[in-house]
Write a structure and sequence with these properties.
two-stranded antiparallel ribbon
């Protein structure tokens, strides 16, 4: 009996199913504890909208974590990108330009971080600490003590076309395919399991670290757009807890 239980708990399917089982248990617990108020459609939608932002950024960050590195500047990166994208929209009134700007800026910030790490041979975690301070200071300089507000009709229109849900699903599926079925995903996982062995096997770790950060940058850009759509405004408190939520 003990052996059977041990096999069940050690099974990879158990580890994959456990988070969903815990989620169901928590849902039931909070629904009962709040007399059903927790499970109202509006409340569930609010929770899902926030979770999708975290899920989008975290999906991209999986590639960095898979290399054995930690990036603690994802929240600051998302906040700064959202700020600059909002500024672009307010200047041009172009939603498409706002989205393109967000994704491009997200990728640029992550590429800069990779370059500092690979060129100067500094661990990603230490580079991200410096970037966290710099990006937060830059956002505070741009915003000051104020906020940037996007017209409600713009955010409402994007909500009606379900941009957030569509973008998340497409990005998640794309990342899942890359992570599990391409040489990029296999190489990233190989580097994370044993970087020395990967280098001796002929893998150029800097190249795949760059790919990991580019994919993360796309997630940061999409997360920034989703943040704008959800809140309709950007302040110094935007995405403050995003980094820890992703981790």
């Amino acid at each position: 009996m003990k052996r059977k239980l041990a096999k069940i708990f050690e099974s990879r399917w158990t580890s994959r199913a456990l988070p969903f089982l815990i989620l169901i248990v928590l849902y039931i617990f909070f629904s009962v504890a709040t007399n059903g108020k927790f499970s109202t459609p509006n409340n569930i939608k609010m929770i899902v909208d926030q979770a999708i932002i975290t899920g989008t950024v975290a999906t991209g960050a999986v590639f960095i974590f898979a290399t054995g590195n930690v990036n603690i500047a994802m929240g600051a990166s998302t906040a700064l990108v959202a700020t600059l994208a909002a500024e672009i929209f307010l200047s041009t009134q172009s939603v498409m330009l706002m989205m393109v700007t967000a994704v491009v800026l997200g990728v640029v910030l992550m590429v800069i971080m990779t370059m500092f790490s690979t060129i100067f041979k500094v661990r990603v975690m230490f580079v991200s600490i410096v970037m966290l301070v710099m990006l937060s200071a830059l956002q505070q300089t741009i915003l000051g003590a104020g906020t940037l507000s996007i017209p409600f009709k713009t955010t409402l229109a994007l909500q009606k076309v379900n941009f957030t849900y569509i973008a998340f699903v497409v990005f998640f599926v794309l990342c899942a395919v890359i992570f599990h079925f391409t040489s990029i995903g296999r190489s990233v996982r190989f580097i994370g399991s044993n970087e020395t062995c990967a280098s001796q096997a002929g893998l150029y770790t800097g190249r795949y670290l760059l790919w990991a950060f580019i994919i993360t940058g796309i997630g940061v850009g999409l997360g920034a757009v989703m943040t704008i759509i959800r809140s309709g405004s950007i302040s110094n408190a935007t995405a403050n807890t995003l980094n820890m939520d992703c981790m």
